[in-house]
Amino acid sequence: xxxxxxxxYGSLFNKKMYYSSGKxxxxxxxxxxxxxxxSSNHNNKDFVVFDQIIPSDNVDKYTNYFNEIKVIIVDRDxxxxxxxxxxxxxxxxxxSDNLDTYIEWFQLLRKNKTEHENVIYLQFEDFIYNxxxxxxxxxxxxxxxxxxxxxxxxxxDPSVSIKNTNLIERFPQFRDDxxxxxxxxxxxxYHQY
Length: 193
Description:
The protein has 193 residues and is mostly helical. It contains eight helices and four strands; from the N terminus they run ββααβααβαααα.
C-alpha cells in the first residue's frame, strides 16, 4: 500500500490517505474483507451471515471482492412494497410519491439481475406461503444440512409476516395503483395472489 492523499475541504479531511496500485486492488480488497469477516466471527461459527453486504443491483462486480460468498437476494411483490411505503414506512429512498417514478425505479434496480452460481433470488412471500420448501432451497444452496435449521419461527415467523403481504386487502385505497403496478411489473408480482 502506498501513502498518498490530498487535502479536501481544508482541515475537514486533513489526514493521510492510503491507496493501492490498480494491479493488486482486488486481492487487497479480498484480503481486507476476509479479515473483516473473520474478526466478526467471535464464536468461530461455520457460517457468517450479513444483511446487504453487497448491493443487489450489481452482484457480479461485488462478488469479486470475496473469496467465498453465497448471496441470497430476497425480493418482494412491488405492489406490497409500494403500499407499505405509502401507508406505513414513508421512506424517502423508495419513490412512492409518483407511481410512474416508482415503477421506473423498481425496474431499474432489477435490470442488472444476472445469473451466477453463488447467487440465488427468492421471493419474500415464499418464505411465508412456502416456508418449508424455501428453507430447503436456502439450505441446499448454502450446502447446509436441513437438520441445522434451528429456532424455527423464532426470528422469522410466517404467521406474523403474512400481515405484510397481499396488502391490497388491508389498504384497498391503493387498489388502482396496485392494478397499474401489476400491469406494468407483472414479471415481479407474486404469482399466488
